[in-house]
Specification:
Blueprint lengths: L1 H39 L1 H9 L2 E7 L6 E2 L5 E13 L7 H12 L7 H5 L3 H11 L1 H6 L3 H9 L4 H14 L3 H4 L4 H14 L7 E4 L5 H9 L7 E11 L11 H4 L14 H5 L13 H5 L1 H4 L4 E7 L5 E8 L6 E4 L3 H18 L8 E7 L6 E11 L6 E5 L3 H4 L9 H11 L8 E3 L19 E3 L1 H7 L2 H11 L15 H14 L27 H6 L9 H12 L3 E3 L4 E5 L11 E4 L4 E4 L4 H16 L17 E10 L9 E11 L6 E10 L6 H37 L1
Helix pairs in contact: 3-10, 16-25, 18-20, 18-21, 18-24, 19-24
Amino acid sequence: MKERKKKKGNYLSLRINIMFFVIFLLFSVLIFRLGMVQIVFGEDYKREIERTVEVPVTTPVPRGKIYDANGKLIVGNNPQKAITYTRSHAVTQKEMIETAKLLAKLIKKDSEEDLKAITQRDRQDFWIIENPELALKKIKEEDKDRLTAQELSKAEYDKQIYDMTRERITEEELNSFSKEELEVLAIFREMSSSIALTPHPIKNKNVEEKEFAIVSENLHVLPGVDTTVDWDRFNAFKDEDGNVTLGSVLGKITTSKEGLPSDMLEYYEARGYSRNDRVGKSYLEMQYEDVLQGQKQIIKNHTDKTGNLIKTEIVRDGKAGKDLVLTTDIEFQQEVEKIIQKRLGNMRASQYYMDRAFVSVMNPKTGEILAMAGKQYVKDKETNKTEINDYALGNMNTSYSMGSTVKGATVLAGYQTGVIQQNTYLYDSPLHFKGTQVKRSWNTSGFGSINELYALRRSSNVYMFLIAMKIGGQPQYVAKAPLSINKIEGINELRRNFNQFGLGVKTGIDLPGEHAGYGGDQIPPEPGKVLDFAIGQYDTYTPLQLVQYISTIANGGYRIQPHIVKEIREPNYENDELGPVYQEIKPTVLNKVDMKDQWINNVKEGFRQVVNHNQGTAYSSIKNKQYKIAGKTGTAQALYDGPLGGHPMLWNLTFAGYAPYDDPEIALSVVVPWASTDKTHINLDIADEVFKAYFDLKEKRAKGDAAKENEEISGDGTE
């Protein structure tokens, strides 16, 4: 018995010893591993823990300015104080709300615009964050069971729960926020919509000095918040009604809230833009975005592995956008706009449909747009009041039948095709074709036997009809016989010649959205429409095409590309003067018309007679003949297709001209659509006043320069 107990005791002792030995081995291994971690791999692990992530971030710089041809500032930037927020990767919604609550005590963010920007979704999200316990009660156990039975992924399950919670928040709960809470929400929504590590404006309008100062003093308790200087775009020239001079052509930029346009998001992001960057969204601001935007400052943010911001460093200094110098003289532009507004306003009482007028003015030798003006009467849908708005863009994106102004191109097409020679006489009398209405000139009995100069001076329709017939393959008119021209060959040949002058093709102006007009790809349903084409009553053209056409004739046959930007300049940081020239926009010849110089000179003589011969159609209306004006009048019957009801037949009143006729420096087109009569001369009255405004301004500046020069000479003498 004793021997059995002794054996049992020895057995237990052995097991305990084995257990202690195993424990000893385990501790030895553990100590060894700890030693390896601390001694061998310690530095590596330490570096891994302290490792930072470098994230480059771009910050915007002031946009380039826009000046007129004489260096007057048209569009600039007003510096303004701004409060921004930079969201880190690691920040939570709760932390952002806490920061928003602190910030709401320091700034005002409760304007009508701020509160209106808060959406129902914003309210729902904010309510859930602020009322977590009540939000949980919105979901019943059966809801959870039903979703669980669908075997959804965790992400989809959580989304379904969240959406269900949002939908069950009552209107009373959503409208229960106090004004103070809505102000916090307005700040929070800006914070949460920001892109990580990219400064986002919380408030950049009407930031008071006190707000700016107190936020600056409390940045240490406002993580991510900063105070900085932003900019706001402004237009220097406005009329008494608040309309911006040349406004529609200058274009607009997006706001920081709009950011990059959704349809061009990939395009801009590939070029280093941030989503909340302001960019040009229309016309000049959009066309020259790459130039105006400037070189953005690049800041490198250093974050730890969890996304906390450790430090920032400037990698590249920012540089303001380059400045644009326009070809347009803003003072002349204002005068042209006043002329249009006055003349159009005077016609409103008697002309129900006449709601717009356009003037394009160009240097025929360089293509520089000296003025591009348009006005349109529009009824405000809310107030029901009629207002007159800037419609300069209508010069390039609306088109009309131009009437007789195109007859110079018709005569030149006749020369080019050989169907007439210089001083060719044709008989102008009413044309009676079988099965069609009679076609005649405005002088219903006809002008008799006339040559092309007389036809231009008196604006003969029949002379142009006979040219079109010959081009279409019918050499002689036969009374009461069918019109037997080849309408396809006839219209194509005429269009080809018209295109050489810019009629029916885009002018190539440096603005987006230009129209080419209508009709260029259509074959007339009947041959008689080919004859109508020859007098400007089939295809439609833009006012800008019309001025390019008359410029091409004025300069001897060179179709010049119109441009509204004259120079690109480097920004000047020292003062308000223009910086050095970065790029000069030189004249671009699109084509030389396939015509003899003597043909073009003959048509120019016809245009001179239109204004200066006592039989000319513009003789009595163009008063300022001292400027040596040449040009061509036009009236075209056209079906009304404007904003008012009905489709009556109305008249488009046009004029295209240039001066001085012996050395042209200004060419213009005037287009006034939809007059109820062709007896009014609003087109010629506008043209006459625009020519006078141009030369008066030129004379005034010449006198001013002479006086300044004399003053400098006198000053030098006294020294």
